[in-house]
Design goal:
The chain has helices spanning 42-56, 71-86, 93-100, 107-118, 124-134, 143-154, 169-176, 188-191, 198-207, 221-230, 258-268, and strands at residues 13-15, 19-20, 25-26, 31-33, 59-62, 158-163, 184-187, 215-218, 234-238, 253-255. The protein is an alpha/beta fold and 269 residues long. It folds into three domains: 1-49, no CATH class; 59-69 and 140-268, Rossmann fold (3-Layer(aba) Sandwich), CATH 3.40.50; 72-138. The strands form three sheets. A six-stranded parallel β-sheet has the order 7-6-5-8-9-10, sandwiched between helices. Strands 1-4 form a two-stranded antiparallel ribbon. It starts with 12 loop residues before the first strand and ends with a helix.
Length: 269
């Protein structure tokens, strides 16, 4: 998106306040106007140009698991490790996948179910401690996805991540080597709000120094599409081969990859 061109002003304008990017509006005391119509200082023109540029900077928010990063692949690798550690056969894979519920089953309940159904004697606390170390280490980033994120930032987009989960979500960024790829990262357990709650989107916008406007990309119909639309964001659904089956609301676009989502955002701004 090209920056707005400088405009001539009808009076002498002097900046006396500051931009408040969280609300996306200028304060009442932002500008003072003298009684010299038809004249405008260079500093005032530059200030107005920079303020407009900041206000218009686009925002693109992304989910993490099964959006930016492939959770299915990481979980499959962890499952293989889990089978080996506990001496389980491949027959246990379906039990593990069913208990996992695509990551939506709380981990305490997940391991309680595995202990019951697979006869595991290790305590839940020990299973959880090992899981939060071993599981995130299986994450890796797809080069084309990161290239797409970089293309957005190169064009001036503010790019943030909003993800539900424990603090160990950050370990996934480290394992994938993408800690420096985003302007903001919001983890629900860290900030005290989860998608689809408004607060987590507001915090991402605040960290990006940007009004809450732009795009939300994710694979969850409720958390990402519903949550994003609920705060006024345009939405892109990562379908992962699924058909939309939620009456009452729908994403603006459906895609199968991050590059496809980034192409839409770059085209429409």
């Amino acid at each position: 998106m090209s920056p707005p061109s400088l405009r001539f002003c009808d009076s002498w304008v002097e900046p006396v306040g500051r931009l408040t990017p969280r609300s996306g509006q200028r304060s009442d005391s932002l500008l003072s106007v003298s009684n010299q119509p038809g004249r405008c200082s260079f500093e005032s023109l530059l200030f107005r140009h920079l303020a407009d540029t900041v206000l218009l900077m686009p925002l693109a928010l992304f989910d993490l698991d099964n959006t930016l990063l492939d959770r299915e692949q990481a979980f499959a690798l962890w499952t293989k490790y889990f089978l080996e550690v506990h001496g389980l056969s491949e027959d246990a894979v379906l039990t593990i996948e069913r208990a996992d519920a695509d990551g939506y089953n709380p981990r305490g309940e997940f391991f309680a179910q595995l202990r019951r159904e697979l006869g595991i004697e290790v305590s839940i606390d020990r299973l959880l401690a090992d899981y939060y170390v071993e599981y995130p280490s299986n994450y890796s980033a797809q080069p084309e996805a990161i290239a797409a994120v970089r293309s957005l930032r190169a064009q001036g987009f503010k790019v943030g991540v909003v993800t539900n989960g424990p603090p160990s979500q950050w370990a996934k960024f480290e394992a994938a080597g993408i800690e420096e790829e985003f302007d903001a990262v919001c983890i629900s357990s860290v900030i005290g709000a989860r998608k689809p709650e408004r607060a987590i989107f507001e915090e991402a916008a605040r960290l990006c120094a940007h009004p809450l406007s732009g795009w939300m990309v994710g694979d969850s119909p409720e958390a990402d599409v519903g949550g994003g639309a609920g705060v006024g964001l345009r939405t892109i659904w990562m379908s992962r081969g699924r058909e939309w089956s939620f009456p009452g609301f729908s994403p603006e676009f459906t895609v199968g990859s991050i590059p496809d989502a980034a192409a839409i955002i770059l085209r429409l701004g």
